[in-house]
Structure formats: C-alpha cells, structure tokens
Specification:
It is a single chain. The chain has helices spanning 29-33, 86-91, 153-178, and strands at residues 21-22, 25-26, 43-49, 58-64, 70-75, 98-102, 111-116, 119-124, 144-147. It is α+β, with helices and mostly antiparallel strands. The strands form four sheets. Strands 3-4-5 form a three-stranded antiparallel β-sheet. The chain is flat and about 90 Å long. Mean pLDDT is 69; it is low at 83-119 and 123-147.
Amino acid sequence: MTAEQTTATVETLTAEVRVLTVGKRQITVSVAKQLDVIPVTRLTVFGRVKLELKDHKDYVIGVDNTTGILSLSAYNKYFRGPKPFVDVIDSGLPDEQFPIVCGATSSYDNAFQLRWSDIDFELFADGVRRCEIDGHTTWGTAKCSGWNPAGSAEYIESEIARQTAEADAEAKAHRDAASSPLIVLAGLR
C-alpha cells in the first residue's frame, strides 16, 4: 500500500414506501388493473401507482368523489390548460365585429366552436352568427379574420370564463396527481 490512503464512505438513503390496504388486505396490482378508470378531476387521490399497462399511461389511485368507490385515473404529467387573452376578457367583448379567429367545426347544427387565441371553446348556435366572409365554410375549419357575436357577448364571456375555470381545475388535478406519493402495490408485475 502506498503512504496515501483513501477513505470509503457509505451513505444510507431512506424513502417512504406507501401501501394501500382495504380492511386488512393490501391492494394488489391485479386488483388495481380491474378498477374503473374515471377522470382525474373526480378522484380524491391517494397516490401514484405503476401498473405497466399496454396503454403506457400514468395512473393514480383514489376514491371517486361521486360514488365513494376505489378507482383509477390516468393523468398527464405535462397537461396544459387553455389560456385565453385575459385583457380582452377583462375589458369585455364588444357587440360589433371584432378581430378573432373562428371556425365552425362541429358536425351538428346546434353547436359551433369559437377559437379564441388558438383555444377552442364550445358554444351553442344561438350564441353565434356565421362569419359571412368569403371563403369561410360553415362546417369547415377555415379561419376568418372577424366575427360578430350578434349581441351574445355576455353569453360568450361567461362561457369562456366557465370553460377556462374548468380547464384550470383540470390542469391543477393533473399537476397534483403527478406530484402525489408513489404507492407500492402488492403482487408480481
């Protein structure tokens, strides 16, 4: 040995491992795979689970808020909700024509789709009027440079606010699911 010696150190890491039990029984991977899959916004999340299903989705397990039943939800780690122009919404929509991208893309005659800042919002036909610009087809995906809310600005404002709030709540649910603790299920994978 040389006169110079090196000291080796061992570092011990600890991690919290959570298990899910119902009564005295631990939930297994095979049981979890058979649970109902519901939207993540309806789930009180217990934690993330690794199921290794063929769909390659990430799942959380928890209780369905409406039924109280143990359920799964797929979540997206990179979910992004729509963000319309807040300044325009805060200042209100005018009753006259204003610049906006629009396209009626629904195949039904009772629903249109309003595109606001490249974000889709569903509206009913009585809240909209056709663009009436050359080249725009009512059931196509063509874009027009102007749109007339036909006196329905208040309805459109409330729909955009409602749908934005729903999208924000959904984005939060996905973020919360992604940051929830990992639960280790019993059984072989």
